[in-house]
Amino acid sequence: MQVLVIAHRSIAHEFGYLEPWLASMTLTRHAREDGPPPADLLAGADLLLVMGSPGSVAEGHCDQANAAEIATVRDWVAQDRPYLGLCFGAQVLACALGGTVTRMPQTYRAYRELALTAEAPSSLQGPWVIWHEDAITAPAQSTVLAQLPHADLAFRAGRAWGLQPHVELSSASLERMATALNTAPDDTQPLIEGLRNNEQEPNSPGARLTALLEQFSRTALA
Fold first, then answer.
1. What's residue 126's pLDDT?
2. Strands across the sheet containing 160-163
3. pLDDT score at 156
4. Mean pLDDT along residues 69-78
């Protein structure tokens, strides 16, 4: 399977717990800094994976480059092609399908479980790292899988999934991301410690993500 990855070069770009799942696939990375992916890369891909970003697609905050990424994803999903969006990638998917993304008064950071809907796979329960400044209201035609009081956190529409939590992050990659974003230690250390402690337990984030990706594969990649 050919996977096209859209990500930044040095922020929120690490695959972390996605790596075992991606190991058997052929990956092509495209850096956002280089503009929209060219048509030949899109044409040759079987799955589009869109990673996180400090950028925004929120109303009143979406620049031209991010608007172009929304258009790319809209065209991709309209062709019923598999899509997995993480954090910013979920926000892009929401905008591409007619949902909304709004700027919150302050950044939300937590390591916590989600409120699952009846349609959600149990592996989505968490806890997961949640770190976002913009809140999703899922598209009307999508199926919401998980929520918190302030936003929809996971949804799917056809063969496209949007996951706001950073399900890919390990404690080590989270620490590097916090450093790259120059985030105050007091804001991120509780998340890093919670994730590090959970990594030693049977119900580790890696194990839960493996189960979640199995569900994604059955519904989106079949």
1. 84
2. 26-31, 2-7, 47-50, 83-86, 160-163, 151-157, 143-148, 115-116
3. 98
4. 98
Nearest residue to 108 via CA among 172, 153, 47:
153
Burial track 179-210 (b if 16+ CB lie within 10 A, e otherwise): eeeebeeeebeebbebbeebeeeeeebbebbe
Tokens read off for 37: 């992916």
The helix/strand/coil state of 172 is: helix
On whether the pTM is more than 0.70, the answer is yes
pLDDT band for 217, please (50, 70, 90 cuts): very high
What is the residue type of 178? A
Q: Is the separation of the CB atoms in 145 and 154 below 8 Å? A: yes
In CATH, the number for domain 2-220 is: 3.40.50.880
| Contact present, 94 and 162 (Cβ < 8 Å) | yes
